[in-house]
Amino acid sequence: MKDRKRKDEHTNNNRFSFSFVEQSIQGIVILQDFRIIYANQVFADICGYSIDELVTNSLKHAFPDGQSGEILVRLHTNNNGKMALEVSDAGVGFPDGSNIRKPDTLGLQLVNDLVNQLGGIIELDQTRGTAFRIAFDRTQDAE
Question: Rounded to two decimals, what is the model's pTM?
Fold first, then answer.
């Protein structure tokens, strides 16, 4: 993995505080944009597992035959005051006929179960590649 540009801020116990980071893996650029969010350990774990699974899926499936491309990982507070996690790629897209609510793969089942554990909502946008958007209530924040 090659770091191209890295601007990190200090992180505290219950605080995500990363600015924009760009990394490249075999021609696939991973853009990370994490805004300051205070969260408890359970929320942090669920976000971490979800990001890991969704980025792994993008790396495995979005860019076949050595194609290059971009994967974006964002964590921020959305316009509705909810914490929002987005993992998207500009790859070949999610297979037609797939149901993200009842996925065939163990990894996506795990993401759904974890999101449901926090009362979150997961959406799939296939306008350009594949974008998973997950929204969690701010009531999951740590004080």
Answer: 0.78
Contact 122, 134 (CB under 8 A): yes
- Give the domain ranges of the chain: 2-140
Report the alpha-carbon distance of residue 20 to residue 125 in Å, rounded. 23
Identify the DSSP state of 14. T
Q: If you write DSSP's letter for every residue of 59-118 in order, what string do you get? A: HHHTSGGG--EEEEEEEEE-TTS-EEEEEEE-SS-SPTT--TTS-SSHHHHHHHHHHHHT
CATH 3.30.565.10 given to domain 2-140: yes
Please identify which residue in the block is written with the tokens 């790629």.
Answer: 89
Average pLDDT over residues 24-32: 78
For residues 59 and 30, what is the distance between their CA atoms, to the nearest angstrom?
10
pLDDT of residue 77: 84
